[in-house]
Design goal:
The complex is a heterotrimer. Chain A is α/β, with parallel strands linked by helices. Chain A has 19 helices and 23 strands. In chain A, helix 4 runs antiparallel to helix 6, helix 14 runs parallel beside helix 16 and helix 18 crosses helix 19. Chain C folds into 2 domains: 226 residues, no CATH class; 91 residues, abc type-2 transporter like fold, CATH 3.40.1710.10. Chain C is 68% helix and 9% strand. Chain C contains 14 helices and 5 strands. Classes of the chains: A alpha/beta, B alpha/beta, C alpha/beta. Chains in contact: A-B, A-C, B-C. Strand 4 of chain B pairs parallel with strand 5 of chain C. Chain C: Belongs to the ABC-2 integral membrane protein family. Chain C: It is found in: Cell membrane. Chain C: It holds the Pfam family ABC2_membrane_3.
C-alpha cells in the first residue's frame, strides 16, 4: 500500500441475490486492487466478473461485506458523501433526463459540481468537440441515438476534473472516432491535472493505454499488472496465418478456433491472428502443431492475447458447439440471388434527413456489416430493413418481398435481435421461445422440435425455466438469438449484438454467425468493434445518412489508403474514411460560402 | 379457412403471453386482486349514506312525561345514540362546532303543558349541515318519529287516527340500504378501472422495455396485437367483477335477482367499450408514466359522472347530456337492473346499444392511432 | 470551520436551485404531468361544482289515480306546488310499473278508489312504492312526499301536536355543493402531493437517473427538497384554483379566515408530499408506487375522510382507520373554516396533528432516501 494510491482495496468481498428469493451470489471474493494517483487503471473481464460492483463500492453506493477500501484516504462505506464530493462516476447506464436538452443535462451536472462560468466555457467546447454533440445541444436527450446518449453521459461526467474518475464501460456503443477523442481527453486530464482514473472496459485497445490492468473473473482477480507484463505472458505464442488464396480469413479462423491447441484466433487485416497454447508451441523455431502446414509467421503479442490466455486458462469454452448451428431445411447455396435490395432509400424526420439516397444489396448467405459513427443513420436504415419504420422514398426488397406491400410476408423470413435485450423479462426461457415460435406460426410437434434444437444449439437447456430477466448478459444474448432463429429465417438482423460483450462472448458469437452463414442464412450486423468487420463478407460505411464506402474489408482498407508497406487495421481504415468525408464536406461547405 | 385458423392461433398465442406477463409474478397478482378486495370491502362498509348510531345531544328543559316519551322514541329507533345531555343553550354551539354531535334536540320549557293545551308545540332540531346529506337523512328520520308520536298522542287523547296514512314500500331494496346500490355499482366500476389501466399500460410497458419492436417484426398484424392485448384485459376485468360479485352476494348478502349469464353478457359488452378507450390511451402514451396519468385523468370523470356517487338526475341538464358518452353510466345502470331488479337483456337494450356505439367508435380510433404512431 | 459556513450554504443553494430548475423544466415539458397537475383539478372543480349533487329536485313520481275525485285531484295539485316533486298522473298500476322499470320515475303513489270516501271518515290510506335501488334518493323522495301530504293530513282540532322546527347550521341553503367543495381541496392536494410526486420520484429510481446523481456533491435532502418545492407549487396552484372557484363560481361562504385555510392546506400539502416521497423511496417502481399511492392516500381520502360519506355512519373499525388518516383532520378543519368559522380549539388541535404527520412522514422519507443502489 503506498501513499500515492488514489484507491486501495484489500480483500473485498460482496455477495447479494440477483433477484428477490434467489440464492445469494458471491459477486466479489477477496479482491484487492490499487489505483495509482495520476494514472489510468483498467478493469477487464467477462460479464458478471464483478467490475460494476467494485466500482459501485468505490463510489460509496454499496457497502462491502468484507475487506477494506480506502478512496482518497477515506473509507467510502463510512463517509460516502466525502468521497462523492471529490470523485466523478459514470455508471454503465447513465440516467439522462429525457425531457431535458443536451445543454440542460450538461448544465445540471455543471451546477451540481459547482463548475464556474469561465471553466465551463472552455470545458464545454472541448466536450462538444469530443462527442460531436455540438449540433444537437437543443435536442432533448430522449431523442438521441443510443451511442449519442452514451457520449452525453460521458460529457456530463467530465464537466469537472475530479480527484478520482470512475468509468463503468464508458464507450459501449460509442463509435471509434468518439472513443479516440474521449481517451485523448482523459489522458490529457491525467497529464495536466494529475487525475486518477479507474475504468472498466471490454475494449482491449483501451486497456492497453492504461498504466495498470486488472483481469477479473467471477469475482476474483485473475491477473494484474502493467499491460506489458500481461502481454508478455503471450510472448512466443502468437502467430499470423495467411489464408490460402480464394479462402476467406474467417473460414480459416473458424477452423483454428475449434482446435484445442489454440487459445485464440481472430481475423485481422485479411490474415488470422492466432494464440497457441504453451503445450502446443514447440520449443524450437518450428510452427506449433495446429499451424503445421499453414502459411504462418510469429508476431508480437498484444494485450488482448495476454488477456485471452489468462481467461482461457480458467474458462473452458468449446467453440465447436457454438458452431453446431445447423438449419433443418437445406437452403440454396450462397450467391444465388440477392436477398436484400435497397435502392435510393430516403428517410426524413421533419426537415432532418436521417438516411439519404442509400443503395446496396446483400447476397444470400452473406455476412453484411453496417458501420458508421453514432448518428450516421445506421439504426434508421436497420429499422427500415426490418419493417419497423416506413421509408420516405426509395424501394426496399427483403427476401423477395416489397416491404411497402407485403410487410407481413417479409417478416416471416427475417429474424431480429435488437441492441437492447427485448424479450419478456418475467417469462422463462421456454415461455419466451414458445411465444415467439407461436408468433411465427410454429405450433405442436414442429414447435417442440425447433425449441429443442435451438436450446441445444445455444446451450440454454439448463436455464429453460429461469425467467429471462434474471439471466446473465451472455445467456440473454443467446436467448435473443435463439428466439430470432426459431422459425429458420432467411435473414438475421443483429443490431450491435456485441456491444458490451467480453472478448470470449464475442468469439463465441461470431463463431455462431459464421456457421449460420455457412448454412445459407444471411446476416446483417451493425457493430462498433471495427475489427469485427473482418468477419463480414462486405461492409457499408455510412455517415450523415450517406454511403461513404461499400465493399469487402480489403476494399475498404484500400479505399482508406492502405499500401503494402503501411498496413491498416479496420479501425484505422474506418476513421480515415469518415474523416476524409467530413473534411471534404467542410471544404465544399466553405467553398460554397 | 387456413388463414382463419392461423389468425386464431396467433391471437391465442398473444393472449397466452399477455396473461403470463400479467400474472406470472406474485407481486403482479397481488396488485391485480388485492386492491379490488380492499376497495370493495371499503366501499361496502364505508360508502354508506345510511345513519348508524348517529351521535346527538339532548337539551330537555321540561323533563315532563311527554318529553321523556318523545326522547324514548328517538332512542329506541336504533339509529341515534345520545352522547351528551345538556342543561344550557350555550352548550349547544361548542358541541356542534366540534363535530361531536350530528344534531341537538331542544325540548322547550312547558312542553307538556302546551301540548296538553292543544298547541302545536315546537321542538327545536339543530343540525350540523356541514355534511348536508347526513343532516337531511337525520331530519327525515326524526320527522317520521315525530309523526308517529303525534299519531299516538292523538289516539290517546281521543282524536282518532290521523286522517291520512302513507303506506310505504320499497322495491328492489326493501330496507333502503345504500350498500346495495354501492356494491352493485362497484361490480362495473372496479373492473372498469383495472381493464382500462391494464390495456393502457400493456403497450406502454412493452414500449418501455423494448419488447414492442420485437413483437412488431413478427408476422403478427397490428390488429392481432390489439386483440391479443384486449382479450386478457377483458378476462382480468371479468375475474375482478366476479370477485366483487361474490363479495356482494355472499359477504354482504345482497340477493341476485337477475340471471348470472345475462349479467356477464352485459359486462362483456361494457369491457369491450373500455378496452377501446384503454387501447386509444396506450397508442398515445410514450411511456408507462404517461399511460398511467392519462388513464387516471380519464378515470376520474368516468367514475364521478357515472351516477354512482350522486344520481345523474340531480345534475344540471348539460352535464346530464355529457354523461351520455360515459360508458360507466350505462354499465352501472345495466348491473343495477339485472342484479337488483332482475331485468333481462331485452329490458337493458337502452344501455347495451350506447355501449356498443362507444365500442364501435373507440376501437377503430385506437386502431387508427396505432397505425399512425407505430408502423 | 466558520469560514466554510456561508460557502457551504452557497453550495447547497446552488445545487438546490439547479435541481429545482431541472424539475420545473421536466414538469413543464411532459404533457401528462401538466394534465395531472392542472387539467385534472380544473375538471374536478367543474365536476364537483356543477356535476355532483345530492339535492334531489323535481323528483318524478307516478301517481296512479284510481280515484278521480276532487279530493284526489287536490292532493296532486298540492304536490305540484312542491319544487321537489314532479307528479305524473297515470291511469293504472301496470302503466306506473312500466314507468318505474324504465326508471322514468323514482316512485309510485297510488291513490286507491275509496280514497275520498275514507278521507271523509278520517281513515284514508295512500300507497307509496319507492324505487329502492338508489336508497338515498328513495329516502329523500319519501321525505318529500311525506311533507307534501302533511297539509292534507293535519286536522284543525284541539288536540296538541309536536312541530319539529328544523335549523340547519353552517349550510342554511342545504346544498351539497357547500360540503363537496371543501372536500375537493383535500382530493386535489392529495392527488398532486402524494400521487403525482410518488410517480415522478419513483420514475427516477426506476430509470436509474439517480445513480449518476448520487455520486456528486448532492445531498439526499437536496434531492428531496428539489421534488418538494415544484410540486408544492403545483399543489398551491390547485389550491388557489379551488379557493377561487369556491368563492366566485359556487359562492361557498368562507366563514373562517382565509389565512388559516392557507396555513392548514400548506401543512396538509407537506403531509401529502411526505407520503408520496416515502412511497416512492420504498417501492422504487412507478407502477407499484402508483398503486400504493392510490390505495393508501387517494382512495382513503375519498372514502374514509368524511368527504362524501360521514365517518360517523361507518362501523367502528372503519372509523378507526378513518381517524388515523391525516386527510380526515384536514377535511374536518376545512369544512369548519369554510362553513362555520374559526373554531380555534379544533383548528389548533388539527393543525398540530397535521404538522406532526408532516414531520414524521418527511423524516421517514429522508431516512429511506439513501444513496444506495442495487
Amino acid at each position: 500500500m503506498s501513499d500515492t494510491d488514489a484507491l486501495v482495496a484489500r480483500g473485498i468481498g460482496k455477495s447479494f441475490a440477483a433477484a428477490k428469493g434467489s440464492p445469494e451470489v458471491l459477486a466479489l471474493d477477496e479482491v484487492s486492487i490499487e489505483v495509482g494517483t495520476g494514472a489510468i487503471s483498467a478493469l477487464v473481464g467477462p460479464d458478471g466478473a464483478g467490475k460494476t460492483t467494485l466500482l459501485r463500492l468505490a463510489a460509496g453506493l454499496m457497502v462491502a461485506d468484507a475487506g477494506t477500501m480506502i478512496v482518497l484516504g477515506i473509507d467510502p462505506a463510512r463517509d460516502p458523501q466525502a468521497v462523492q464530493d471529490r470523485i466523478s462516476y459514470m455508471p454503465q447506464r447513465f440516467g439522462l433526463y429525457d425531457d431535458l436538452s443536451v445543454q440542460e443535462n450538461l448544465d445540471l451536472y455543471a451546477d451540481l459540481h459547482g463548475v464556474s462560468r469561465e471553466a465551463r466555457r472552455t470545458r464545454y467546447t472541448r466536450l462538444m468537440e469530443m462527442t460531436d454533440l455540438g449540433r444537437f445541444t437543443a435536442r432533448p436527450a430522449g431523442k438521441l441515438s443510443g451511442g449519442m446518449k452514451q457520449k452525453l453521459g460521458l460529457a456530463c461526467t467530465l464537466v469537472r476534473s475530479p480527484e478520482l474518475l470512475l468509468l463503468d464501460e464508458p464507450t459501449v456503443g460509442v463509435d471509434p472516432l468518439s472513443r479516440r477523442e474521449l481517451w485523448d481527453i482523459v489522458e490529457q486530464l491525467v497529464r495536466e491535472e494529475n487525475l486518477s482514473v479507474l475504468v472498466s472496459t471490454s475494449y482491449m485497445d483501451e486497456a492497453a493505454r492504461c498504466a495498470r490492468v486488472t483481469i477479473l473473473h467471477e469475482g476474483r482477480v485473475l491477473a494484474a499488472g502493467t499491460p506489458e507484463s500481461i502481454r508478455g505472458t503471450a510472448a512466443g505464442l502468437c502467430f499470423a496465418v495467411t489464408p490460402p488464396a480464394g479462402q476467406a480469413a474467417r473460414h480459416v479462423q473458424a477452423a483454428l478456433l475449434d482446435d484445442c491447441g489454440i487459445v485464440d484466433a481472430v481475423p485481422r487485416g485479411g490474415r488470422v491472428r492466432v494464440v497457441c497454447t504453451k503445450e502446443a508451441t514447440a520449443r524450437d523455431d518450428s510452427l506449433p502443431a495446429p499451424l503445421a502446414g499453414k502459411d504462418a509467421a510469429a508476431v508480437e503479442p498484444s494485450l488482448e492475447d495476454g488477456v485471452m490466455l489468462a481467461l482461457r486458462a480458467k474458462v473452458h469454452r468449446d467453440f465447436a458447439t457454438a458452431a453446431a448451428v445447423g438449419t433443418s431445411t437445406a437452403r440454396p447455396p450462397k450467391g444465388d440471388g440477392k436477398v436484400i435490395e435497397v435502392t435510393d432509400l430516403v428517410r426524413r424526420f421533419g426537415d432532418f434527413t436521417a438516411v439519404d439516397r442509400t443503395s446496396f444489396s446483400v447476397d444470400r448467405g452473406e455476412i453484411f456489416g453496417l458501420l458508421g459513427p453514432n448518428g450516421a443513420g445506421k439504426t434508421t436504415t436497420f429499422r427500415m430493413l426490418c419493417g419497423l419504420l416506413p421509408a420516405s422514398s426509395g424501394s426496399l426488397r427483403v427476401a423477395g418481398y416489397d416491404l411497402r406491400r407485403a410487410r407481413a410476408r417479409a417478416r416471416q423470413e427475417i429474424g431480429y435481435v435488437s441492441q437492447k435485450f427485448a424479450l419478456y423479462g418475467n417469462l422463462s426461457v421456454d415461455e419466451n421461445l414458445t411465444f415467439f415460435g407461436g408468433a411465427y406460426g410454429l405450433h405442436g410437434a414442429r414447435l417442440r422440435d425447433r425449441m429443442a434444437s435451438v436450446k441445444a444449439q445455444f446451450d440454454l437447456d439448463a436455464a429453460a425455466r429461469t425467467p429471462a430477466g434474471q439471466l446473465p448478459g451472455g445467456f440473454r444474448q443467446r436467448l435473443a438469438m435463439a428466439a430470432a432463429l426459431l422459425h429458420e429465417p432467411e435473414i438475421l438482423f443483429l443490431d450491435e449484438p456485441t456491444s458490451g460483450a467480453d472478448p470470449l462472448a464475442r468469439r463465441e458469437f461470431w463463431r455462431r454467425i459464421t456457421a449460420l452463414a455457412e448454412g445459407g442464412t444471411t446476416a446483417v450486423v451493425t457493430t462498433h468493434f471495427m475489427e469485427e468487420a473482418e468477419y463480414c463478407d462486405r461492409v457499408v460505411i455510412q455517415d450523415e445518412g450517406k454511403v461513404l464506402a461499400l465493399g469487402t474489408p480489403a476494399d475498404i482498407r484500400r479505399q482508406a489508403g492502405e499500401r503494402p508497406q503501411a498496413q491498416l487495421d479496420m479501425e484505422q481504415a474506418f476513421i480515415a474514411i469518415v474523416q476524409q468525408h467530413r473534411k471534404a464536406e467542410r471544404g465544399s461547405g466553405q467553398a460554397a460560402a | 379457412m387456413n388463414a382463419l385458423l392461423a389468425f386464431l392461433l396467433r391471437v391465442a398465442n398473444l393472449c397466452r403471453k399477455e396473461l403470463k406477463v400479467i400474472l406470472k409474478d406474485p407481486a403482479g397478482r397481488i396488485v391485480l386482486f388485492a386492491p379490488v378486495l380492499v376497495q370493495s370491502l371499503m366501499f361496502g362498509y364505508a360508502a354508506t349514506l345510511d345513519l348508524r348510531e348517529a351521535p346527538y345531544a339532548l337539551l330537555d328543559a321540561d323533563h315532563g312525561q311527554a318529553a321523556v316519551r318523545l326522547v324514548a322514541r328517538i332512542e329506541s329507533s336504533g339509529v341515534f345514540r345520545r352522547v351528551a345531555t345538556l342543561r344550557n343553550e350555550h352548550d349547544i354551539a361548542p358541541l356542534v362546532d366540534a363535530g361531536d354531535v350530528l344534531f341537538v334536540v331542544a325540548i322547550p320549557p312547558r312542553f307538556e303543558q302546551r301540548l296538553a293545551a292543544g298547541e302545536a308545540t315546537p321542538v327545536q332540531l339543530i343540525l350540523d349541515a356541514r355534511n348536508s346529506v347526513t343532516a337531511g337523512t337525520a331530519a327525515g328520520y326524526l320527522g317520521q318519529i315525530v309523526a308517529r308520536f303525534n299519531a299516538d298522542w292523538r289516539a290517546e287523547h281521543g282524536g282518532g287516527g290521523m286522517p291520512l296514512t302513507l303506506d310505504v314500500r320499497s322495491w328492489y331494496n326493501p330496507n333502503l340500504e345504500t350498500r346495495w346500490f354501492m356494491m352493485t355499482s362497484m361490480i362495473a366500476v372496479l373492473s372498469m378501472l383495472q381493464t382500462l389501466m391494464l390495456t393502457a399500460l400493456s403497450v406502454a410497458r412493452e414500449r418501455e422495455q423494448g419488447t414492442f419492436d420485437q413483437l412488431l417484426v413478427t408476422p403478427c398484424t397490428p390488429a392481432e396485437i390489439m386483440i391479443g392485448k384486449s382479450i386478457p384485459s377483458i378476462l382480468v376485468g371479468l375475474t375482478q367483477a366476479s370477485l366483487v360479485l361474490l363479495i356482494a352476494t355472499y359477504w354482504f348478502g345482497i340477493p341476485l335477482a337477475g340471471s348470472l349469464i345475462e349479467l356477464y353478457v352485459a359486462l362483456c359488452i361494457f369491457m369491450v367499450a373500455c378496452v377501446g378507450i384503454g387501447l386509444a390511451i396506450s397508442a398515445m402514451a410514450a411511456n408507462m408514466q404517461q399511460a398511467m396519468l392519462y388513464t387516471f385523468v380519464l378515470m376520474m370523470p368516468l367514475v364521478l359522472l357515472s351516477g354512482m356517487t350522486t344520481p345523474i338526475a340531480n345534475m344540471p341538464v348539460p352535464m346530464q347530456w355529457l354523461t351520455r358518452i360515459n360508458p360507466t353510466r350505462y354499465a352501472i345502470d345495466m348491473v343495477h337492473r339485472v342484479y337488483l331488479e332482475g331485468a333481462g337483456l331485452g329490458t337493458v337494450l337502452g344501455d347495451i346499444l350506447p355501449l356498443l356505439a362507444i365500442a364501435v367508435v373507440t376501437l377503430p380510433l385506437a386502431a387508427w392511432l396505432f397505425r399512425n404512431r407505430l408502423v | 470551520m466558520n469560514a466554510a459556513g456561508p460557502d457551504r450554504r452557497g453550495a447547497f443553494l446552488r445545487r438546490l436551485a439547479a435541481l429545482v430548475r431541472k424539475e420545473v423544466k421536466q414538469l413543464l415539458r411532459d404533457r401528462s404531468n401538466l394534465m395531472m397537475g392542472i387539467a385534472l383539478p380544473v375538471v374536478l372543480i367543474l365536476i364537483f361544482g356543477y356535476g355532483l349533487s345530492f339535492d334531489v329536485k323535481n323528483a318524478p313520481l307516478a301517481v296512479v289515480m284510481e280515484d278521480t275525485s276532487p279530493a284526489a285531484n287536490d292532493l296532486v295539485a298540492g304536490m305540484r306546488l312542491s319544487p321537489y316533486l314532479d307528479p305524473r298522473p297515470v291511469h293504472d298500476m301496470p302503466q306506473a310499473e312500466r314507468l318505474m322499470l324504465d326508471r322514468e320515475v323514482n316512485g309510485i303513489l297510488r291513490i286507491p278508489p275509496d280514497f275520498s270516501r275514507r278521507l271523509t271518515l278520517g281513515d284514508a290510506h295512500l300507497q307509496l312504492i319507492l324505487h329502492g335501488a338508489d336508497a338515498n334518493t328513495a329516502r329523500t323522495v319519501q321525505g318529500y312526499v311525506q311533507s307534501a301530504l302533511q297539509a292534507a293530513g293535519t286536522r284543525e282540532d284541539s288536540i296538541g301536536s309536536v312541530r319539529l322546527e328544523q335549523r340547519l347550521w353552517f349550510n342554511e341553503a342545504n346544498t351539497s355543493t357547500w360540503f363537496l367543495v371543501p372536500g375537493l381541496v383535500v382530493l386535489i392536494t392529495t392527488l398532486v402531493g402524494a400521487f403525482l410526486t410518488a410517480l415522478v420520484m419513483a420514475r427516477e429510481w426506476e430509470r436509474g437517473t439517480l445513480e449518476a446523481l448520487f455520486v456528486t456533491p448532492v445531498r439526499p435532502v437536496e434531492i428531496l427538497l428539489a421534488k418538494i418545492i415544484p410540486y408544492f407549487g403545483v399543489g398551491l396552484i390547485g389550491l388557489a384554483m379551488c379557493l377561487l372557484a369556491a368563492r366566485f363560481l359556487f359562492r361557498v361562504p368562507i366563514e373562517g379566515s382565509l389565512l388559516l385555510i392557507l396555513l392548514v392546506s400548506v401543512f396538509y400539502l407537506f403531509v401529502a408530499l411526505g407520503i408520496g416521497l416515502l412511497i416512492s423511496a420504498v417501492t422504487k417502481n412507478q407502477f407499484t408506487a402508483s398503486q400504493v399511492a392510490l390505495i393508501v392516500s387517494f382512495m382513503p381520502a375519498l372514502m374514509l375522510s368524511g368527504f362524501i360519506y360521514d365517518l360517523r355512519n361507518m362501523p367502528l373499525v372503519v372509523q378507526g382507520v378513518g381517524r388515523a388518516l391525516p386527510a380526515t383532520y384536514f377535511l374536518q378543519t376545512l369544512k369548519s373554516l369554510f362553513l362555520a368559522g374559526n373554531l380555534w380549539p379544533m383548528v389548533l388541535k388539527n393543525c398540530a396533528i397535521l404538522l406532526g404527520y408532516a414531520v414524521v412522514l418527511l423524516a421517514a422519507a429522508r431516512a429511506k432516501t439513501r444513496k444506495r443502489v442495487g
